[in-house]
Design a protein that fits this description.
The chain has a 7-stranded mixed β-sheet. It has a two-stranded antiparallel sheet with strand order 1-2. The protein is an alpha/beta fold. It has one domain (2-190): Rossmann fold. The chain has helices at residues 2-6, 13-21, 53-63, 80-86, 99-111, 148-152, and strands spanning 42-45, 48-50, 70-74, 91-96, 117-121, 134-139, 154-165, 171-179, 182-190. Helices cover 25% and strands 30% of the residues. The model has no long low-confidence stretch (mean pLDDT 95). It is built from 6 helices and 9 strands; from the N terminus they run ααββαβαβαββαβββ.
Length: 200
Amino acid sequence: MVQNSIKSVTDDHKIIRAFAQIPRHLFVPKEYRALAYQDESLPIGFGQTISQPSLVAEMLSLLQLTGTEKVLEVGAGSGYQTALLSQLANKVYTIERIPKLAKRAYQVLSKLHITNVIVIEGDGTLGLENKAPFDAIIVAASSPHIPRPLVDQLQNQGRIVIPITDEDGGEKLKLGVKNGKTLHTLNCGAVRFVPLVTEQ
């Protein structure tokens, strides 16, 4: 997977090493484990998926993490991307709205002895104000717009990566870089994600 899929989208040695070290099959339901190292998304229950590895690598590359950052992840899902982030940042806070997924992600991360991640059950569109500001934010579900609390909780010059739904129903991966109170965004290609669900 690393040779065929990850190295095709990034030459960042830290990201490549993270993919080599984190066992994806542990985050995949048993019935799909034979496909765990294929470059494809897989169901994880509750209408959610574990994302395609090459897409995860692309999103992580856009964050440009150096290892010192405090990161917020919206949508822990299986916890796989969370585990990768744990290898690339100093501290990771991840929010998952589905209690059973949050519990499962926590259990797998604990099994891997990952200690720099905090798993929180809740509405990720609200961010985590008491831990802000964040150097980087990554959102693993598509939204019609970038939730304002996430922009507010992003550090100046911080980066956010999020899939945004177009008016025609398509989705574009967007990179936002904060400058003062303004977020400058860049389109980074077409994607397909499950929708971001919020209580708001």
